[in-house]
Amino acid sequence: MVTLTLTQALVNGLALGAQYAVLALGFSLVFGVLNVINFAHGGFYMLGGYFTFSAMSAAGLPYVVALLVGALGVAVVGAVMELVLIEPIVDNHEATLTVSLGFFLVLTAGVTALYGPDPVPVEFPVSSVLRFGGLYIPVARLIVIAVSVAAVAALWFLLYRTKYGLALRALSENREVATMQGLRPRTFFPLAVALSAGLAALAGGLVTPIFTLEPVVAQTALMTSFVVVVLGGLGSLVGAAGAAVAFGIAEAVGGAYLSGSLTQLLLFAAVLALLLVRPTGLAGRRLRDA
Amino acid sequence: MPSQTETVTPVLTTTTPPRRRSAPRPRVPWGELVVVVVLVLLLLLPLPANDLQLVSQLNHVVTVLGAALSVYVMMRLKLLHFGVPAFMAIGAYAVALTGLHLTSNLVVMVLASLVVPAVAAVPFGLITMRLRGTYFALVTFLIGQVVYLLIVATEALGGTDGLPGLPAPTWGDVVLADQVTTMRVGVGVALLAVLLVIAFTAVSGRALDSLRSNEVLAGSLGLRDRPVRLGAFVVSAAVAGLSGFLVVNTLTTAHPSSFSVLSGVDYVAYVVVGGWGSVLGPAIGTALLVLLTSQFASEGTSASALLGGLLILTSLFLQRGLTGTVAHLVATVRRRRSDPRRAGRNADDDER
User: Which residues of A touch B302 (CB under 8 A)?
Assistant: First the structure.
């Protein structure tokens, strides 16, 4: 019985961890490349859900197409935000943080005004459940895992096997030298934010129909991104992905035995305690860079 | 034949006479003076008791002023503190437990709301004193969430129901319960918070400023940064606790929803918009945003949009905040008048 509960929790945890990874990778990518903490990231997650919902309900698109259209739409919003709000002040860490925070507030206010504060009726197209003995695995969760793994693999390919990725990594490593080599931040920064926003929107469009789609998911997603990147180490993609999966599994396993908020409390407290020993997280950069 | 040095030296001494520079005049703390005088006037002057809306708005401003000051103390170190609601909550619940189980004496309640968050801030401060820049911002967000979840999970603190039915504070035999008196208590406590912050910045202001402007240089000159950072965090928590006391004193309930993590964003916005050159910045930011919100955005959604819009505009166009920008302009004009060649240079030095 214990094994069954644990296995069930592990499967759920993998699904959670996979979605957290997609979310946190985008957040960490923007920090790595632009050195900007993007508070609007949770807003992009929420917007992904609402864009997907609107593409399905208003335009009548099938879910898969709506999901991709939603992610693309949010990517465009991200690029525009970078060009208009971030780019003029990109070297000011505090101002970029507060400008993205302002954009986050405007986004959530806009969505609440348009769609209302309550959950909207959106359903994931697949509701079947696989049964193995006493184990229940919703197919939707397997799809979340598969899509997330595919997204992370695509991101890895983009960053480590293409010239675009090489440019992003060069800008992340040393902006001055990369710029001297002819890489133009004005081209690559909006693209990096677009990529990050698209990933957040993909996670949002994928997950919110399974759970609930309401404006408050923006805050939850933001908090998850924070805790995962603080645990993994700000600016480290490998750290973010590893921390996301570990956090997701710990949350699901804890949730199987304890109440949800108590599990969250213990996990958050554990992350804070870890900072006493490792202020940079598990794989973070030196603090002065942050 | 005179040597070359003998001929050159007199020329040098005659053409470049030593320039006598007058000692810098001590800075008059105008910002601090204005805030203290306004609060003292609010404490003493008669108020229109029947204009309850005005009283309510003033009460709101002084209630959250401590929270904004809490952000301000850390902003002096160029750190964005999003965990203020956590320490407001600790102060608030300390007061609630004191009021429900011990005494409703005003002085004891104020002390509880001041001391308990300050002590509770020490372990968190040990974490945050090693963090810089945006990392600090993220971790204080997590601190806010941890304390919020801790309150919700603790039965003795009423969990999600909170602790209702708090007694009004008493001063001797007098019960300080009506709306105007509550506002006066708020003004008095806010004044205490302002004086605490002024005292801290008077003692540690130079250390804060030098750590903010060049930490490596400050360290090489012998300044130990961690005690200063820890001290700032503890003072910040203490004034946040005072603000927490005022929240529960107004609502007569200590409820977790008053201390949500996202409310920390409001207090950061007050300081970002108002400026952080002196306590005048947070005071003006708080008054302005509280009044604007109550006038034009009574609903949560429009308040959020207003706050977001102002944060965007300030971050893009007024990066020193309102008071900082005005101080910068004044400093630039003064320099231009006194020495046109130096105009615009080193104007930052005069802002503080």
Answer: 109
